[in-house]
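Archive record
______________

***
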Amino acid sequence: MIIKSIIIAFSMYSKIPMPRVDWDKKSMKYVFCFFPAIGIIIGIIIYLAGLLLINGGINPLLFGSIMTVIPIFITGGIHFDGFLDTMDGINSYADRDKRLEILKDSNSGAFAIIGGLVYFTLSVGFWSAVKYNMLSLIAIGYVISRTLSALSVISFPMAKNRGLAAAFGNNADKLIVKIILIIYTLLEFVFALYISLKGGCVIISISILCYIYHYYNCIKNFGGITGDLAGYFLQICELCILISIVTFYSILN
């Protein structure tokens, strides 16, 4: 059952090749326990690629571009799709039902395109200013974002009873998964503090603020959590961690 849950998590949320398994209710109970493991893999690749490229003296703009697309290649853009849909939904200023309909729409509106361009511009720009001593803190952000994203799906009320978030959230053993995810979060925060006391405090503060905004956005604008909103939060959290770490170290220097 545990092996099946791992395979389902990686099959759903990454492009890493996995064997096929049946998605039964039993194996879906603990899928979110292994969602952060994808963040660990992304974080390791980001860290090693960053070291290699920085030591190789690569052009900063090219460095920023490569580092920006690495997570997209690994995940297949599943979370960024949620970010784009949510940008259209939030900026529609429609009622909740209409916003939920927009999330389901496969077409990208103007705000999705604008939001995507702004996101990638900021990501490339801030990545181009990253130094090797920032890499480990930025890398752990990919784990934190997935842990908190999973925790929100387990903890927040559902905006609708259909969709991937509802399927995984409703079939999960919520109490056990929630406890495990909270333990993960605390361990990740401790590890961030171990890497750098001040830098860790920055990451913890930004992560908590993003999570608070995520709850407010889900409840006020959509009446609950959906898979798209969980993906939106994940992308926002990762970008905010990148921006905050670069800004913090720039101020120190």
Remarks:
- Residues 56 and 240 are 27 Å apart (CA to CA).
